């Protein structure tokens, strides 16, 4: 990861009683006792509480999703049936150990048709707090703890909170413009927004970092690997890309820091002569701030207009679908909606998958639509 806690060579760390407060490095002065240091608020460590709260919220929402799913009632077979209504859908239906698609839809998963036709725009936000399964949840929450807590310690809960939420919205928006046949859930867009914000922070605060190129190279490699994983099937890489681009631009807006020359002049020992510039920020920092804010406003406005008009960007970009999934001999990128034809004779139900022609016969007594849909999913996958 980028060395976010590394400060400029001119900044030192207090050693008094193990304090983690960061102060300007000692400047030569006649009497240290007569020129006490003042805390540099722009570099102080914050206590992280918001990111852990987000983690707890995501876990709670997953538990509620499993309660609503109630696999024993709506499916013929369940994984870990001893968990009762918290048991998981069959592997063929959901290999991530989680609820059914219908349960996720009830909880607020992103469904473009419902956003456009039924004006349920709130799904762009609620989908960020849902996960497709236990594996999905664990992967995202571990990443959020590693990345998010570090950022919150450096920049505080307000800026990191806005960065997380707006990036998540950006990821949902781009996903909705490209993937319109499936539902989408997960905090991945917001997580990639934090990665994008880290990259922007490194660039906009370039002058305060030691080992700049090493930090930049490490962060770029991490981002590239994560985006590369997104070309696998059943992974919404458009949410990753949208979240990353949003977070990258937001980083120039929220994570800007004054250059250390200004910090030394303002917080250095009293009476110490300084030849540093009086400007708080460099010119390039102001330029990046303005350009990023303009691009964010324009991007979100255009994206929302296109979404509400029902535009599918795949119609205007024949190759863009490869950004989310690259077909190989080992997997398919087919996202055709699953459907089955059902014929019943008494308690015998014969289902035929419309996608692959497979059929199966089941003994069911007054089955619910969710049970039939679950069996259909097993046939078609």
TrEMBL record:
It is a multi-pass membrane protein. The chain crosses the membrane at residues 46-67, 128-149, 161-179, 185-206, 213-232, 238-256, 286-308. GO terms for cellular component: Golgi apparatus; membrane. It is found in: Membrane. Residues 1-32 are annotated as: Disordered. InterPro entries: Peptidase_S54_rhomboid-like, Peptidase_S54_rhomboid_dom, Rhomboid-like_sf. Keywords: Hydrolase, Membrane, Protease, Serine protease, Transmembrane, Transmembrane helix. Its EC number is 3.4.21.105. Residues 119-255 form the Peptidase S54 rhomboid domain. One of its GO terms (molecular function) is serine-type peptidase activity. It catalyses: Cleaves type-1 transmembrane domains using a catalytic dyad composed of serine and histidine that are contributed by different transmembrane domains. One of its GO terms (biological process) is proteolysis. It comes from the Eukaryota. It is an enzyme of class 3 (hydrolase). Belongs to the peptidase S54 family. Serine protease involved in intramembrane proteolysis. This is RHOMBOID-like protein. The gene is RBL1.
